[in-house]
């Protein structure tokens, strides 16, 4: 703070006093703003370190961490833009030359977008910060949130931007080697030093985040978790110091210009090498000495903080060990969650906190030699017992009375001694054996008999099997599973059996978590199966013939009658035709014999 605030204030004043500001000047201006924002939170953390407690409330806890996270994202994005701009200037000088007003617009637009993105990406720092037990802590509701938050912070806040800058510098060095260009501007080396300083100072912090992710995925019980926690405090302090390094780098890189340019050395340093001139050669010794000075400063601070923290860990270091396999309990019974210290030591004056998803609302709290129930979860009130018999030997196990289905899940056993704490994760599984299987003969189906088997009140879902008298498993015809309002399972299976095959049946139900099995048997007699009588066959055959006759005889009669009617009509028509011919011949005969008269 003593170096960073005045140094960054000088950078801001120098940039603001410059009339014509190019892209590097404006990016450095916003970079200094981010550093100042981080350094302004310093007094708050100094107060916390001096008192050992966070007494400024939740708003200050979340606000300070949000400012630091936003400044981190803004800094790395601005440094990446600055580095890529330098690469563009060196590789394509003609394409990088931009008019003053346009350059200012581009720089301001890029800075505005950078700050907007940084403010959005920093929002998890608000959601995952809580004040608990006098400390401002990062607390995630689940492992998935912790992994997502840490990977997002490390990827977008460190790895990806610096990788892009490193790739740009690598391509630039290849181009310079091919063109054998020996003249380079100071700005290129200065920006490279800024990038390296940011990568070095923030590297341990993000490495600790990655170690925390791996440790959490491994249930948090391994030595990796202790390493991550040991690295986190000094790495955070080292990252905080990065805000004070940039003014030192500017001063070291531009010390040759301070005598000639005065307070305007920074604009000349940043803008003087946009186009290469013979007067602006690389001062290799100057840049090397600057990097060595900053590296020495960083290493000295890191050594002090790591040494202090390691000494603190040596004073109070232990492991918290739980069960490496799930604990199984029956509904209504008692469950003991084992947890102990390693090496074995007296835990009577330590804080032992059993909790589930939320740290503040606990399952059971043992503190200062007494049990505390003020913030105990309502569903555990009157159902927990801290086993004090082994506390002096490091045993801090917890008994849960009258276990319920809702008790199933993960539990955290956290032990705290002063400012040092460790925790272990345990898993409790609940099981219950329900009713014995009930067998029933349901109906005739597909030439056989359908038999059903039902069992209710089981948890978790049981395994139901049909077997014959030899113990061979039989395939089911249908299967159904349901769950009642209390969470217990009811399973039903049916099977179809035929005469003289598998008439001795047994149905067994087994709990997948408990070595318990219940079964029932049934014998299906031959008399139950339907018998087919020969007389019945004859009767049904005659009945079928009669039905066929009743159906087909009327049809045949109708067809014969229709045929007979057609023939009669045909003959009647022929008779009428003959009568007409006879009458015609009679009329002709009367013409030849007029004396004849028609008969009366």
UniProtKB/TrEMBL annotation:
<feature type="transmembrane region" description="Helical">
    <location>
        <begin position="155"/>
        <end position="173"/>
    </location>
</feature>
<dbReference type="InterPro" id="IPR013783">
    <property type="entry name" value="Ig-like_fold"/>
</dbReference>
<dbReference type="InterPro" id="IPR053896">
    <property type="entry name" value="BTN3A2-like_Ig-C"/>
</dbReference>
<feature type="transmembrane region" description="Helical">
    <location>
        <begin position="535"/>
        <end position="558"/>
    </location>
</feature>
<comment type="similarity">
    <text>Belongs to the G-protein coupled receptor 1 family.</text>
</comment>
<feature type="transmembrane region" description="Helical">
    <location>
        <begin position="185"/>
        <end position="205"/>
    </location>
</feature>
<dbReference type="InterPro" id="IPR050504">
    <property type="entry name" value="IgSF_BTN/MOG"/>
</dbReference>
<dbReference type="GO" id="GO:0004974">
    <property type="term" value="F:leukotriene receptor activity"/>
</dbReference>
<keyword id="KW-0297">G-protein coupled receptor</keyword>
<feature type="transmembrane region" description="Helical">
    <location>
        <begin position="106"/>
        <end position="128"/>
    </location>
</feature>
<dbReference type="GO" id="GO:0001817">
    <property type="term" value="P:regulation of cytokine production"/>
</dbReference>
<dbReference type="InterPro" id="IPR036179">
    <property type="entry name" value="Ig-like_dom_sf"/>
</dbReference>
<dbReference type="Pfam" id="PF07686">
    <property type="entry name" value="V-set"/>
</dbReference>
<keyword id="KW-0732">Signal</keyword>
<feature type="domain" description="Ig-like">
    <location>
        <begin position="332"/>
        <end position="433"/>
    </location>
</feature>
<keyword id="KW-0393">Immunoglobulin domain</keyword>
<protein>
    <submittedName>
        <fullName>Uncharacterized protein LOC116500281</fullName>
    </submittedName>
</protein>
<feature type="domain" description="G-protein coupled receptors family 1 profile">
    <location>
        <begin position="7"/>
        <end position="250"/>
    </location>
</feature>
<dbReference type="GO" id="GO:0005102">
    <property type="term" value="F:signaling receptor binding"/>
</dbReference>
<dbReference type="InterPro" id="IPR003599">
    <property type="entry name" value="Ig_sub"/>
</dbReference>
<keyword id="KW-0812">Transmembrane</keyword>
<dbReference type="GO" id="GO:0050852">
    <property type="term" value="P:T cell receptor signaling pathway"/>
</dbReference>
<dbReference type="Pfam" id="PF22705">
    <property type="entry name" value="C2-set_3"/>
</dbReference>
<feature type="transmembrane region" description="Helical">
    <location>
        <begin position="66"/>
        <end position="85"/>
    </location>
</feature>
<dbReference type="InterPro" id="IPR017452">
    <property type="entry name" value="GPCR_Rhodpsn_7TM"/>
</dbReference>
<keyword id="KW-1133">Transmembrane helix</keyword>
<dbReference type="InterPro" id="IPR000276">
    <property type="entry name" value="GPCR_Rhodpsn"/>
</dbReference>
<feature type="domain" description="Ig-like">
    <location>
        <begin position="437"/>
        <end position="523"/>
    </location>
</feature>
<keyword id="KW-0807">Transducer</keyword>
<feature type="transmembrane region" description="Helical">
    <location>
        <begin position="287"/>
        <end position="308"/>
    </location>
</feature>
<keyword id="KW-1003">Cell membrane</keyword>
<dbReference type="InterPro" id="IPR013106">
    <property type="entry name" value="Ig_V-set"/>
</dbReference>
<dbReference type="InterPro" id="IPR007110">
    <property type="entry name" value="Ig-like_dom"/>
</dbReference>
<dbReference type="GO" id="GO:0009897">
    <property type="term" value="C:external side of plasma membrane"/>
</dbReference>
<keyword id="KW-0325">Glycoprotein</keyword>
<dbReference type="InterPro" id="IPR003981">
    <property type="entry name" value="Leukotriene_B4_rcpt"/>
</dbReference>
<dbReference type="Pfam" id="PF00001">
    <property type="entry name" value="7tm_1"/>
</dbReference>
<keyword id="KW-0472">Membrane</keyword>
<feature type="transmembrane region" description="Helical">
    <location>
        <begin position="26"/>
        <end position="46"/>
    </location>
</feature>
<keyword id="KW-0675">Receptor</keyword>
């Amino acid at each position: 703070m003593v170096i960073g605030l005045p140094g960054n204030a000088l950078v801001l004043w120098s940039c603001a006093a410059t009339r014509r500001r190019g892209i590097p000047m404006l990016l450095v201006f916003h970079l200094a703003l981010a550093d100042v924002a981080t350094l302004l939170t310093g007094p708050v953390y100094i107060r916390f370190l001096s008192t050992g407690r966070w007494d400024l409330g939740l708003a200050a806890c979340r606000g300070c961490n949000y400012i630091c996270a936003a400044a981190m994202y803004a800094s790395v994005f601005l440094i990446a833009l600055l580095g890529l701009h330098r690469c563009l200037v060196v590789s394509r000088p003609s394409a990088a030359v931009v008019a003053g007003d346009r350059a200012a617009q581009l720089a301001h637009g890029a800075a505005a977008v950078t700050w907007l993105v940084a403010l959005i990406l920093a929002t998890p720092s608000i959601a995952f910060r809580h004040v608990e037990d006098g400390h401002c802590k990062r607390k995630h509701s689940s492992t998935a949130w912790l992994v997502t938050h840490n990977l997002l912070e490390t990827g977008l806040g460190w790895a990806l931007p610096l990788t892009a800058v490193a790739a740009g510098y690598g391509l630039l060095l290849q181009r310079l080697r091919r063109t054998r260009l020996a003249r380079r501007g100071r700005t290129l080396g200065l920006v490279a030093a800024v990038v390296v300083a940011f990568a070095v100072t923030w590297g341990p912090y993000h490495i600790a985040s990655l170690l925390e992710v791996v440790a959490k995925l491994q249930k948090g019980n391994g030595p990796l978790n202790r390493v991550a926690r040991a690295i986190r405090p000094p790495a955070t302090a080292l990252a905080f110091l990065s805000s004070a390094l940039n003014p030192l780098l500017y001063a070291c890189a531009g010390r040759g210009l301070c005598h000639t340019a005065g307070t305007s050395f920074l604009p000349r340093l940043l803008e003087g090498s946009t186009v290469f001139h013979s007067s602006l050669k690389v001062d290799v010794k100057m840049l090397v000495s600057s990097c060595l000075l900053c590296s020495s400063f960083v290493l000295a601070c890191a050594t002090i903080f790591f040494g202090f923290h390691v000494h603190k860990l040596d004073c109070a270091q232990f492991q918290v060990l739980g069960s490496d396999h799930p604990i199984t309990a029956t509904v209504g019974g008692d469950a003991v969650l084992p947890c102990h210290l390693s090496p074995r030591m007296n835990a009577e004056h330590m804080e032992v906190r059993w909790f589930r998803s939320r740290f503040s609302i606990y399952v059971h709290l043992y503190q200062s030699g007494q049990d505390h129930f003020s913030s105990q979860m309502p569903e555990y009130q009157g159902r927990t017992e801290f086993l004090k018999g082994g506390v002096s030997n490091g045993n801090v196990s917890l008994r849960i009375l009258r276990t319920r289905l809702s008790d199933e899940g993960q539990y955290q056993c956290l032990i705290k001694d002063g400012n040092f704490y460790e925790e272990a994760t345990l898993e409790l599984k609940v099981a219950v054996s329900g009713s014995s299987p009930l067998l029933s003969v349901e109906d005739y189906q597909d030439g056989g008999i359908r038999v059903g088997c039902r069992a209710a009140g089981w948890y978790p879902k049981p395994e139901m099997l049909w077997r014959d008298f030899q113990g061979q498993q039989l395939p089911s015809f249908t299967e159904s599973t349901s769950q009642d309002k209390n969470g217990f399972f009811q399973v039903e299976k049916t099977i179809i059996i035929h005469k003289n095959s598998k008439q001795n049946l047994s149905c067994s139900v087994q709990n997948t978590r408990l070595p318990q099995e219940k079964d029932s048997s049934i014998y299906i007699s031959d008399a139950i199966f339907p018998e087919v009588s020969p007389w019945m066959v004859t009767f049904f055959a005659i009945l079928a013939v009669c039905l066929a006759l009743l159906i087909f005889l009327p049809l045949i009669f109708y067809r014969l009658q229709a045929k007979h009617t057609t023939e009669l009509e045909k003959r009647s028509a022929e008779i009428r035709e003959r009568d007409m011919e006879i009458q015609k011949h009679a009329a002709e005969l009367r013409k030849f014999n007029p004396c004849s008269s028609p008969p009366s």
